[in-house]
Amino acid sequence: MMRTKPLALALSLFTPSKLSLLRSGLPPNHIHFNAAGASPMSQPVLNTLINHLNLEIQVGGYAAASEVASSTSKIYTSLSKLISCSSSELALHDSSTTSFTHAINSIPLTATSTILSCSSTEYASNAISLLKHCKSSGAIPPIFITNKDDGTLDLEKIKEMILDPKNNVSAVTLTHAPTNGGHVNNAQTLGSLLNSLPSSINKPLYLLDACQTIGQVDVNVEEIGCDFLAGTSRKWLRGPRGVGFLYVKSGLSIDEPAWLDLYGAKWISPQNYEVDSTAKRYEFWEGSVANKLAFGAAIDLVLDIGIDNIQSRIQYLSNLTRELITKEIGLINKDTQDGDMPLSGICSFEVSKIGSAPYVVEELKKRNISVSTSGRSSTLLDAEKRDLPEMMVRFSPHYFNTEEEVRKVVSALKDIKKES
Ligand SMILES: *[C@@H]1O[C@H](CO)[C@@H](O)[C@H](O)[C@H]1NC(C)=O
Ligand SMILES: *[C@@H]1O[C@H](CO)[C@@H](O)[C@H](O)[C@H]1NC(C)=O
Ligand SMILES: *[C@@H]1O[C@H](CO)[C@@H](O)[C@H](O)[C@H]1NC(C)=O
């Protein structure tokens, strides 16, 4: 998380010519302010995708896959550099949700154990996955802990719950950054807490959902100390839709994940199979090779630009977005902060002053501006805790956006306000 480079230097790397290269292929009239939903792929990433589809048409999917086998294995190497792990600790899936669900369902639970969700920012999909797994296992229902009123993780409460033998906590989950605001949880403090538990306690497994941070924040699994991490291609990495990944720390006590096929295990005799000892055991055989290759190209671009440069640029543009929308339109920014953790690129606003959230999104769309809404049920705990409106509007600029685009978005909001 430490910034290694002065801010001004990081920002100065995005010269007009560098930016125009990074924006190549983007429609000039369209302002994409929805990186938190899905970002447009860069031209090299799109080319990688299309080239492989063309190869599949020419020689067939299987032959095409063998031709690119070495490139496919490089995806894991690139990803391991991005999050500081080994390439044998990575499995690819069709989405981050699949990755998270895969991890959750592999947590062994008994009637006396449960899972602890550690933040108000828990995603609906993940909460459902926790509830379902605890229910199916006949375990104690999951325990949901919310952040403290000042936005920080409630580490005292988390520790108390883990130390309470009644709970027998098998795993803890944390959302690194929510979908409904710029909050970034200090994931490392949770890792440190788990590492400092008395040795008499069975250390819970730690699952981190990094789908809104990967590609915009420096995520280092070694520093964080998590056992699993799920992430996605389509948001801040600017990769294609349809790819997610799971980091599985080597040496975990879980030998067998919930689901296996012939990729993660080998059928060695009619009644026996042998499970792969690497993270491969969490992966399935089938998948889109074109998507995976493009995902690899997207990671390479991030490594090339530098994640700290990307983070600075996103912070700069989202700071400007929050500031101008607050000052010039008078809307209320709803982002919270975990202590001195920097905010992510997600800027959430209560917009009732100028119209309903869907109306504002629609009006911006008419002006070639993509933003999205964020509803209560997608982050229920946080919505209830902070009494959030039914829907907010979410602006999420990426490094490829410009100051000029921020100003255009603000000026479009001014028009909408005038008309309302
Ligand atoms: C705690 O849960 C684990 C499964 O996660 C189980 O093996 C163990 O027996 C449980 N311990 C107690 C004291 O119930
Ligand atoms: C964004 O704003 C915060 C304070 O609100 C500041 O600490 C940070 O340096 C700003 N980042 C950039 C890139 O301007
Ligand atoms: C929106 O984009 C389209 C296609 O690029 C363009 O023809 C149109 O003029 C734009 N509309 C506005 C309001 O900018």
TrEMBL record:
Keywords: Pyridoxal phosphate, Signal. Its cofactor is pyridoxal 5'-phosphate. Residues 33-408 form the Aminotransferase class V domain. Residues 1-20 form the signal peptide. It comes from the Eukaryota. PROSITE patterns: AA_TRANSFER_CLASS_5. PANTHER family: BLR4730 PROTEIN (PTHR43586:SF24), CYSTEINE DESULFURASE (PTHR43586). Belongs to the class-V pyridoxal-phosphate-dependent aminotransferase family. This is Aminotransferase class V domain-containing protein. It comes from Triparma laevis f. longispina.
